[in-house]
Amino acid sequence: MPRHLLALLIGLLALAGAACGDDEEEQRAAGSQPTATTQAEACAPDQLALNKPGTLTIGTDKPAYPPYFEDDDPTNGKGFESAVAYAIADELGLGEKVEWTVVPFNSSYAPGPKKFDFDINQISITDKRAQRVDFSIPYYTAPQAVVALKSSGAASATSLADLADAKLGVQVGTTSLDAVAESIKPSSEPQVFNDSNDTVRALKTKRVDAIVVDLPTAFYLTAAEVPEAKIVGQFDAPGGDDWGVVLAKDSELTPCVNKALEALKNSGELERITDKWMGGQAGAPELR
């Protein structure tokens, strides 16, 4: 074959190869972009992978306590977690199609099939639990709280500095102990107790002016165990406890719930719900 024809043939083959390469790259690029459109389609109300088609089944325990639920009735939309659940449902396009089911706390994150689409019940996100179920991104991080008898001088504190000279009690081995040292920085060492019963007893008998616990515990104590006490306030501190919505392991609904929570965070709606039910209006003003 003449040399000029051979050169021409090699050039044509090279061009053909380049064209094929471009086509393959375009196909690969197209195949790698499922993303926003595909996810939006998967999270459309009629495409959601639900236990009962067209209905969002939400689980929680019973009785359902305030401030997370009001009147032991998750269906009324009142209380922090009821409001969060319905906000997620609205973002999923199913706000009017919600059913609630009773799920004992420990059963919610046990391995195996679920009778709910998601469960919301002050459930902390832990690595061990995450091996058995899916967790959403956090919808709440539990802060610390100061609890004092209403008759105590500590009850009138409006800042962390106001508590510097108070006699504080805390349970050994808890994040609350670190929170006292790092955030309140009291002038004297806090009294440390072996368990929660001893800590609460010290408050009742006025051995301490106030105790420091996580906020959910503070709500429970002042509502049930020590009604003569009040939540002086809450404050952010190291060791905050992240709560997540629980779904079945590898649930197809998990990314859609996460997308809904991201939207609620970005719009400020989640913050408004939190402030209403877990903030000053709920009797837990912020201490700074």
Gist of the model:
The protein has 288 residues and is of the alpha/beta class.
Provide an overview of this structure:
The protein has 288 residues and is α/β, with parallel strands linked by helices. It folds into two domains: 42-141 and 242-282, D-Maltodextrin-Binding Protein, domain 2 (3-Layer(aba) Sandwich); 144-235, Periplasmic binding protein-like II (D-Maltodextrin-Binding Protein, domain 2, 3-Layer(aba) Sandwich). Helix content is 39%, strand content 17%. The chain has ten helices and twelve strands. The chain has helices spanning 3-31, 35-42, 80-91, 105-108, 127-130, 175-184, 196-204, 215-225, 254-267, 269-278; strands at residues 56-60, 98-102, 118-119, 133-135, 140-142, 144-149, 168-171, 191-193, 210-214, 229-235, 241-243, 246-248. The strands form four sheets. The chain has a five-stranded mixed sheet, with helices on both faces. A three-stranded parallel sheet has the order 2-1-3, covered by helices on one side. A two-stranded antiparallel ribbon has the order 4-12. Helix 3 (80-91) links the parallel strand 1 and strand 2 (98-102). The longest helix is centred in the N-terminal third of the chain and has 29 residues, at 3-31. Residues 2-32 have low confidence and may be disordered.
